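lol ok so funny story. i was supposed to be doing the assay writeup but got distracted and ended up predicting the structure for this chain instead. priorities right. anyway since i did it might as well share w the group, maybe its usefull for someone
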Amino acid sequence: VQLVESGGGLAQPGGSLRLSCVASGFTFSTYHMSWYRQAPGKEREVVAWISRDGSSTNYKDSVKGRFTISRDNGKNTVYLQMDTLKPDDTADYYCQATGTRQYWGQGTEVIVSS
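and the output, tada:
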């Protein structure tokens, strides 16, 4: 089983990044997917969640209207489009799969700074 995130990096405040998470080794379409983040010195927190078929989503209040989670079950991939980035969005971002088991990716770093 693997979850491989990519797309992190350095962005300016107000800028955008798109994270991707490619899954393998399990039946992706049967798992709900989430994006979490962990800032330095803080606990890991859920940012966004999407249902197995993509019909339902949910977001942390502070990212509503700025972040969009989506998935492509044909490509075994979940995305997190992050717009209007703020310095407080700086963190390591992880994708998580929840179903009969729970799986985590290794994370990708996002730094928002001018």
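The two ends are 37 Å apart (CA to CA). The mean pLDDT is 97.
back to the writeup now i swear
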